[in-house]
Design a protein that fits this description.
The protein has 3 helices and 2 strands, in the order αββαα. By secondary structure, the chain is mainly alpha-helical. A hairpin with a 2-residue loop joins β1 and β2. The longest helix has 16 residues.
């Protein structure tokens, strides 16, 4: 069993986006960047998520998250 479930990896990605880009304003309303990207351009969101997994290292095994197979 992999260390992280898909939903956990996606939460890491959302947090990373929001920390890097903060919030965005759309017609006077404020949204987290991750939500805005997900809603406005789901393809870009998924491509970014895939890139995130392929370039972010697991702290325990030093493999990229997409290749992480370490146990909990």
């Amino acid at each position: 069993m992999a260390k992280y479930e898909e939903y956990e990896l996606e939460e890491f990605y959302k947090e990373s986006l929001d920390e890097a880009w903060g919030t965005v304003m759309v017609a006077g309303y404020e949204y987290d960047t991750s939500r805005a990207l997900y809603e406005l351009d789901p393809i870009a969101y998924r491509v970014g998520f895939s890139d995130f997994l392929a370039t972010t290292e697991c702290n325990d095994c030093n493999n990229y998250l997409s290749d992480c197979e370490c146990e909990e």
